Amino acid sequence: MRLSAYFLPLLKENPAEAQIVSHRLMLRAGMIRQSAAGIYSWLPLGLRVLKKVEQIVREEQDAAGAQELLMPTLQPAELWRESGRYEVYGKEMLRIRDRHDRDMLYGPTNEELITDIVRGSVKSYRDLPKMLYHIQWKFRDEVRPRFGVMRGREFLMKDCYSFDLDKPAAVASYFRMFAAYMKTFKRMGLTPIPVRADTGPIGGDLSHEFHVQADTGESELFYDADVVKLDESNIDPTSPDVQKYIANWYAATDEKHDQAEFEARVPEERRRRARGIEVGQVFYFGTKYSEPMKAVVAGQDKTQITMEMGSYGIGVSRLLGAIIEANHDDNGIIWPEPVAPFKVGLINLRAADAKCKEACDDLYAKLQKAGVEVLYDDRDESAGAKFAAMDLIGLPYQFVIGPRGVTNNVVEIKNRRSGEKQELSPEAALALVAGTNA
RNA sequence: CGGGGCGUAGCUCAGCCUGGUAGAGCGCUAGCUUUGGGAGCUAGAAGCCGGAGGUUCGAAUCCUCUCGCCCCGACCA
ipTM of this model? Predict the structure, then answer.
């Protein structure tokens, strides 16, 4: 993509409304634009990252055995009356009336809808288990939206629902998803910390929140260092020992932290304290919805079995804020490579110079041919402006070509994260990024 | 939902107290000069001063009402 043609409205100054760093940087880097309080448009650069985050989530859901579907944003109030949540949910739920005076709502979550779908088609014990998920926009009418996309009213969420025959199977589904979450967040360059959680309005008796570590995070976490060291690929979700271990380890947010228990259970050298941002939560809630909504299957012995359910959410749009909170410096964003909007930023320092232009155009074509995602700054701007823009949007590699480099046939490569610079031939530069392209 | 703050050019803000022809910096347009860390000079364009009422000869400025946005708290993916 040529920057001269790209819609990338960068801001040199901090917008007054943005207080926290991720919000400021997303606005300054031209990723989002606010439409109303807590509601944002996603501009091309922001959308590219959103899609990458979404894709990683999708791949790990699929790998965990879940199947993707897509439910609507608008739901009939009827289903929520059936589960009893229509009255319980409060003003956070955006209620709408259609032209026929039917009560509708913009979904804040989808337990009712998915249960309705499953109960309509799943009739036999042979049809279970099932795990179904979708990635869809949700709306929660927060009293006070803030922190940009981290606490918007409209947000993109992955929500998955598991349906099992009995509790042991449902708990295994829970821990399968648990392991998938660890992997998902790690793939984005984050450090996930799973914290035991209350089940809140969703209900149930087993739940974990996933926080990712960020110095600017909203909550304070106290945890056993072993929690972070756990390798999710070794988790056997069906093992009662593993389940017990995970369910009982010490990790708590400040509200639920018990210093005495922390000290009693965790050796001093393993006690950790950090700030985090919540990006996901998993619940096992048994028959809370399947019971009132009559989601049952016929068992082998002609009995009726009420499905055992769990639900699993990831705040996809919120993750962008969390990733930036955990990956930035004074100059701007530092994207982890798997979610970077482009892998390489190619800078022509002297756009008016024919030789520079030729060298850059050539390298740009080769990068594209090699399948490397590249943003090419071909604008006629001052060098400083180009460096600053590239640092701000935080692409992992900056390829710089100026009059000096052209004379020596070298490309200067800057690693955005480490700041290290090296000079390579165009061929070597190409090999550097083409080789490791995912 | 309680408390506080702010709405003036695309962005950051001054002007308001003490009413009298709407400002600055950045950005934008044109030209010239520059060219390795947000360039310089010159000339421009750009605003229903959030909206509605009121007071006044006269309102960005004073009064009333309203809408929007931000911050702290309670609440939350």
Answer: 0.94
pLDDT tens readout for residues A362-408: 999 999 999 999 999 999 999 999 999 999 999 999 999 999 999 99
- If you search the block for the tokens 């020596």, which residue do you land on? A408
A347 Cβ within 7 A of any nucleic strand B atom: no
Which residues 190-249 of A interface with strand B at a CB distance below 7 A?
Answer: 200-202, 209, 218
Q: List Cβ neighbours of A99 (8 Å cut-off, separation of 6 or more).
A: none
Q: How far apart are CA A69 and CA A158, in angstroms?
A: 11
Contact, A211 vs A221, CB < 8 A?
yes
Positions 46-105 in A, CB within 7 angstroms of strand B: 92
Q: Is the CB of A350 under 7 A from strand B?
A: yes
Mean pLDDT of A279-287: 93
Distance CA A218 to C1' B52 in A:
41
- What residue ranges define each of the domains in chain A, with the CATH number in brackets? 38-331 (3.30.930.10), 342-435 (3.40.50.800)
